[in-house]
Amino acid sequence: MLISCVDVLPSIALTRSRYNVAPGTWITVVRHPSDDAPLVMDQVWWGYRPHWAKEKAPEPINATVEKVATSNYFKGAFAHHRCLVPADGWYEWLPVDGRKQSHLLCREDSEPIWLAGIWSERPDGKPGCAMLTEPARGVAKEIHPRMPLALDEESLESWLDPHLTDRETIRQVVHHLPADMLTHWPVSTRVNKPTHDDADLIEPIAS
Question: Which of 11, 206, 173, 8 is nearest to 101 (CA)?
Fold first, then answer.
């Protein structure tokens, strides 16, 4: 999964727009670096490996909502180190006649999307993250069986609260972005190469 992340926070200007953000790179997130630290927008590595993991431990880019709160690998971060990834949308690929057509999924109103993530200090001392995924909803099901967990605006503060650690309480106060707010369209297969990073990538094309 690649995401398109452009300037999204009115109070914080990003240095440049990015239209093709690949796993295994530095991405912008909003997080509390520690329980008592103020909220910051900074860069973390898109690849999750907690500091206590062995050298050959996996480095997933995603964590499923079905297991993130119970898996030994993720549950500590889910309880204490949640983050948000601001994005304009994300890319998925639809099989069509033996090929895969790139699609951009985004909000119909063009507002930013807040994707739920978790982070942990990596063995090298730098932060790394994974994005949460869930079964696809609404029009996203037309493209791929799963999608990132996008949150509604009322849930953002609770998701980021490091003192909110109980799984059931989090489930009660954190809610999806309504599926009927999403749309999608086909885009250029140039997006398949992370070295391509320009505004033309998000323009609709004839499918």
Answer: 206
